[in-house]
Write the structure tokens for this entry.
Amino acid sequence: MSSKLSDTVSIRPMQADDLIQAEALDRLAFSDPWPAGAYIYEYENAQNSILLVAADTSRRAGQELVAAAVLWLVVDEAQVATIAVMPQYQGKGLGLKLLATGLAQAARRGAVRSHLEVRAGNAAALRLYYGLGYQTVGLRPGYYKDNHEDALLLTLEGLDAEKLDAIAAEA
């Protein structure tokens, strides 16, 4: 990978051809991945969703997905359903770039705040979310099926598309 992520990684809307890779990426990134067929369902029912992928253009003729995100739009809120980043791309700003891009799109579609659940012990994800301004607003004890880890409920108020675009451009 080059020294600057944006030189080789591009973010774009998820396409039908991405679904198998997105599902495989989810299984690689999470100990408790989405069930088989979940990405297909999201893609086929995406009228109130934002589905994004990041592809590394330096790998396999630009077709290798290295990250994926799904956000659900519920009235004026953006629920971050998932962000999966290939392990070797973690810690390089790709999660921030993908999330800020998705939240900017959500803001343009009327979202004024965002919510998500995150494993209480996921320090890297918490750094990402807190760094973007999310605040802890609650706890779901034993939320995760694989190990009964607690989930923290986070909220980000005041989505600003231009500010989020600038964050995505810098990441």
